């Protein structure tokens, strides 16, 4: 039952019992890395520190999602499933 680009419900959440979907881990890792590189480049200019910080945090969150959450996302908790 692989629908290609669509997210597949793979499991029930252990916290809320909601639907857990599996995102593409390579894609999350690529996007996270790009955001971190963009943040490092942006951090060169003090005027961009605030957006660079937010961008870097977002990238770190995506990489944590890949590493800790294994690309799993709960639609009930609205967060990655790291349990
Ligand atoms: Zn949940």
Characterise this structure.
The chain has 83 residues and is of the alpha+beta class. The protein has a domain at 25-76. The chain is built from 2 helices and 4 strands. The protein has helices at residues 25-42, 49-67, and strands spanning 8-12, 19-22, 72-74, 79-80. It has a 4-stranded antiparallel beta sheet, with no helix packed on it. Strand 3 (72-74) and strand 4 (79-80) form a beta hairpin. Helix 1 (25-42) packs antiparallel against helix 2 (49-67). The longest helix has 19 residues, at 49-67. The mean pLDDT is 89. Residues 13, 15-16, 18, 74, 76-77 line the site of zinc ion (ZN).
Assess the beta-strand content as a share of residues.
15-25%
Largest sheet at a glance? 4 strands, antiparallel
List of distinct ligands in this structure? zinc ion
- Assembly type of the chains comes to single chain
Average pLDDT score: 89
Which properties best describe this structure?
2 helices, four-stranded antiparallel sheet, alpha+beta, 83 residues, 4 strands, binds zinc ion, 45% helix
Structure at a glance:
The protein is α+β, with helices and mostly antiparallel strands and 83 residues long. The chain is built from 2 helices and 4 strands, in the order ββααββ. The protein is elongated, with a radius of gyration of 15 Å.
């Amino acid at each position: 039952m692989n629908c290609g680009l669509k997210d597949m419900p793979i499991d029930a959440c252990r916290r809320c019992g909601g639907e857990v979907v599996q995102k593409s881990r390579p894609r999350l890792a690529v996007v996270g890395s790009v955001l971190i590189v963009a943040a490092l480049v942006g951090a060169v200019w003090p005027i961009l520190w605030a957006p660079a910080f937010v961008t870097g945090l977002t990238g770190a969150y995506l990489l944590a999602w890949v590493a800790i959450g294994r690309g799993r996302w709960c639609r009930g908790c609205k967060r990655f499933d790291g349990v």
